[in-house]
Every structure is written in C-alpha cells, then in structure tokens.
Amino acid sequence: MSALLAQLQGDLVAARKAQDKPATLLLGTILADVKNRRIELRRDLEDAEIVEVLRKGIKRRRESIELYGRGGRPDLVAKEQAEVDALARYLPPEVDAVELRAAIQTAIAGGATTMSAVMGRVAPQFKGRADGSAISAIAREELAARV
C-alpha cells in the first residue's frame, strides 16, 4: 500500500472518530475515486497516480467554484474552496516557476521548437509537481521570445 493511500485512509478513520462529517464525506469520495482508478487499471496505485486522482478532484471543485460564483452562491463557493484546501494538503509541493522555466529553456535549447515537443520533454519531469497549464503558459512565453 502506498504511503499516500495509507495517510488518506488514516485521516478518514480520524475524521469518522471525530464525527467530522464534511471531512468524512470528502475523504470517502476521494478514496472511492482512488478505488475506481485502481479497478480501472487492475493494479494497486502508486503515489503519483493517487496525486493525479487528487488533482482531478481539485479541478472539479475549482470548476464548481467558478459556476457557483457566477450563480451568486457564496455559501457553496466557501464549501468547495474548503474542500480544495483540504485536498491540497495531500499534494506534493509545487515546483517553483524559476525551476520550471529553466527546464523549458533547456528543452528549447536541446531542439524542441514546437509547443508539443517542449511539453513532451518537460511535462514528464514534473509529473505530479506542476500543473500542465503552468508548464504550457511558460513554454508559450519562451517559444514566443525565441521567434
């Protein structure tokens, strides 16, 4: 069993004992997503794959925050934001922009002249530690500067 999965399960047990219903529901939902992904892949998940499940959960909640904000529901925005914050605690620390930019510049200097070539070289290096949109934004800047 991965360390991250054990931590999630331990926190779920602690939330149940504390009768923390929001945390119990959130962790139960995430663990169900992890279980579904494990069934889909037909093997136990590694920490990096569990991080991807967490990132998808955070992405869904951020989309909900945007919709609830447009719909004038600050109560639901606050609930979803609290869930994002709770899930973000389980993610590894984000890579800083300086390190990301250096890797992108190295990839460009190594012959990656298109967006897909840069993403293909850089994204695997930072899997689970950097958001794809952050990588692509910096890559676009760097590629535009080279033209």
Overview of the molecule:
By secondary structure, the chain is mainly alpha-helical. The protein has 2 domains: 3-88, Hypothetical Protein Yqey, Chain: A, domain1 (Orthogonal Bundle), CATH 1.10.1510.10; 97-146. It is 76% helix and 0% strand. It has 7 helices and no strands. The chain has helices spanning 3-17, 21-41, 47-70, 74-88, 97-109, 115-122, 132-146. The protein is globular, with a radius of gyration of 18 Å. It starts with a helix and ends with a helix.
Strand content: under 5%
The tally of structural domains comes to 2
The tally of helices reads 7
The name of the CATH superfamily of the largest domain reads: Uncharacterised protein YqeY/AIM41, N-terminal domain
Label the CATH architecture of the largest domain: Orthogonal Bundle
Low-confidence stretches: none
For this structure, the CATH topology of the largest domain is: Hypothetical Protein Yqey, Chain: A, domain1
Distance between the termini: 48 Å
SSE blueprint:
Layout: H1 3-17, H2 21-41, H3 47-70, H4 74-88, H5 97-109, H6 115-122, H7 132-146
List descriptors:
single chain, 76% helix, Hypothetical Protein Yqey, Chain: A, domain1, mainly alpha, 7 helices, 2 domains
Summarize the structure.
The chain has 7 helices and no strands. The chain has 147 residues and is mainly alpha-helical. It has 2 domains: 86 residues, Uncharacterised protein YqeY/AIM41, N-terminal domain (Hypothetical Protein Yqey, Chain: A, domain1, Orthogonal Bundle); 50 residues.
